[in-house]
Amino acid sequence: MTLAIEARRLGRCYGQRWALTDCDLRVPAGRIVGLVGPNGAGKSTLLSLACGLIAPTTGSISVLGSRPAATAEQLARVGFVAQDTPLYANLSVAEHLRLGAKLNPRWDPRLAHDRVRRIGLDPGQKAGRLSGGQRAQLALTLAAAKRPELLIFDEPLAALDPLARRTFLQSLMEFVAELAATVVLSSHLVTDLERVCDYLVVLAGGRVQVAGLAEDLLDTHHRLIGGQGDFDALPAEVDIIRAERTGRQTTLTLRSPVMLPYYGTQVQRLDLEELVLAYLRRAEAGSGIAAPGRLLPTRS
Predict the structure, then answer these.
(1) What three-state secondary structure class fits 86?
(2) Which of 147, 204, 228, 245 is surrounded by the fewest CB atoms within 10 Å?
(3) In terms of pLDDT, which residue wins out, 88 or 296?
(4) Is the per-residue pLDDT at 261 higher than 70?
């Protein structure tokens, strides 16, 4: 499997605070990756490490098989849009495109100008006078016109209204189809990621909680609802993510790589948001990784 990003025991410390600790991650090339986590989870730190903006405190990270930002050629292979979609307020749209052409050896002027025309941006308009959605579209265009192999976005949807978010994601998918690039999209808006991402990484507490193909994760995670004693003999392969007990009822959210025998009265599939929330709640509770086949004494 070709990897776009590989992190091994990656850690980053700011003063006395660890933003990432022992982070292991393998992101396959050719995927649209949703990086999900609460504020302070370490998402921006991980993406900054992948772009070479900061260096690891511990461990290692490689991007497209090389150290991030090691050479000018490596820089040209990665497009990055930071959280606040940074642009030069006093430069016009056209001036941003000319600057992009000067700074990027693989710059595609046709792609850039066609995209500006399609989304209706005035080339003479100053970036500081664009709407939030227009600024996001311009930043996306500048990143894509580099023709990178990896596109990284740090919370690009956070400040956009629902219509602007949908338009941005549609534009992103069009660029992905043209560039055949790997995309890493950081967001806490799971419903938006669900529309476009086929690979999921959940980050919380500075650690990767779960990662994998979205379809595989949904196939292997379930909610089981039953009475006391219904789950005393779960297979060893089962990882209990969350357990809730109310009166006589027990509800388990679990991951199992094998087909489970029928336990309890109900077996339910999770949607992506429910899956993410289960891992975030486990991380918030500080329970770590549950021992396979054990019932955690957790209450809702």
Answers:
(1) coil
(2) 228
(3) 88
(4) no
Long-range contacts of 157-161 (CB under 8 A, 24+ apart): 157/187, 157/189, 157/192, 158/83, 158/187, 158/188, 158/189, 159/84, 159/132, 160/132, 160/133, 160/136, 161/132, 161/133
* Structure confidence at residue 298 (pLDDT): 38
Residue from 184, 163, 152 nearest 75 by CA:
152
Give 241-260 as a 3 state SS string.
Answer: EEEEEECCEEEEEEECCCCC
How buried is residue 166: exposed, middle or buried, by Cβ count under 10 Å (0-12/13-18/19+)? middle
CB neighbour list of residue 37: distance below 8 Å, 6 or more residues apart:
43, 188, 202, 203, 204, 280
Structural domains in the chain?
A: 3-205 (3.40.50.300), 216-285 (no CATH)
What token pair was written down for 283?
């991380």
Q: Starting from the edge strand earliest in sequence, which strands make up the sheet with 221-227, in order?
A: 239-246, 249-255, 221-227, 266-269
Report the pLDDT averaged over residues 222-250.
81
The per-residue pLDDT for range 153-197, each reduced to its tens digit, is 998 887 788 888 888 888 889 888 888 899 999 987 788 888 899
* The pLDDT value given to residue 262: 56
Neighbours of 22 (CB within 10 A): 15
Q: Are 82 and 123 in contact (CB under 8 A)?
A: no
- Give which of 246, 293, 248, 253 is closest to 277, Cα–Cα: 253
Tokens matching residue 206: 């500075």
State the CB neighbour count (10 A cutoff) for residue 137. 25
d(CA 149, CA 144) in angstroms, rounded, equals 9
What tens digit of pLDDT does each residue of 7-61 get? 999 999 999 999 999 999 999 999 999 999 988 899 999 999 999 999 999 999 9
